[in-house]
Amino acid sequence: MNPINRSRINLKTAACLLAAGIGLTTASAESLLLDFGPATVASPYLTLDPGHDAGTVSGSDTAWNVITTSAATSSLNYGDGSSASSLTLSLGQEASAGNNVISYSTAITKTTLAGSGGAVAGQQTLLGAGSIYGDDISSTAVGRDGFFGDGNGTTGNAIGLRLDGLSAGDYLIYIMARNVNSDVASSPMNIYSSVGAAAGTFDFSTLTGSGEANTGYPSATYTGQYTTFQAGENYVGLNVTVNSGDSLFLAVDGAGASETRGFLNMVEITPAPAPEPGAWALFGMGTLALLIFKKRRLA
Length: 299
Hints:
By secondary structure, this protein is an alpha+beta fold. The protein has helices at 3-26, 50-54, 277-298, and strands at 32-36, 65-67, 88-94, 101-103, 110-113, 146-148, 159-164, 169-176, 189-196, 201-203, 210-212, 236-242, 247-254, 263-264, 266-271. Helix 1 (3-26) packs antiparallel against helix 3 (277-298). It is globular.
């Protein structure tokens, strides 16, 4: 191929890539905020969550979907209050404790975790001034209440969800998963995620979970750990790519010897931030300058 023609093709390719990139920065989709449990989120707790804390969920997105039953629902709204009726949320748990398969036809029956903060002697309660779980038992913070699996601490069920209808794209997902009735020294959870065609079950047996440590602290050495969001400690953040027609699957399973039930307090699903227009402009200018330089050398 003629070197000049090759340069022209490369120049056109760069221009197309730049245009596509700029287009990505203008694409938008709304955040979906899911709060599990009996309490309706209210001020001053509307933005007390990992997504708002990280700045990836807009401060004006405060319309939480309060999920109080395990029944599938399409009566959802985005964080800005607009309808999300194209989405359907389904919930379920293991039909048999420890089988690592979420069945969406097996309803979650424990839907009223109130979040007492715990009362283990010598341990710092989860509730208190500035806590991410709320100040006290009247707190409506999304991290305080929740759903959990059947069974007991040593033989308990994982729980999970399936979300149908998401637009194709890259998403950040924030999950808080803790037994907020307990302030024991350790109550870890594993969170599993996948995407694919809608199905009645989610087998997570071959997946690697992302851990939420849920450490408890002695009162004598407590230094405010419950007042800040810490990835891997009191929430998990996931990066997920959804293709056209994909459903999103999540499962939560207790990861400690004394707590094998899955707990779920809240889930936020928000589009991954696109590069700033200035970044794309710099990329484009650099690419074009390089190709022009190469063209001159080939001339």
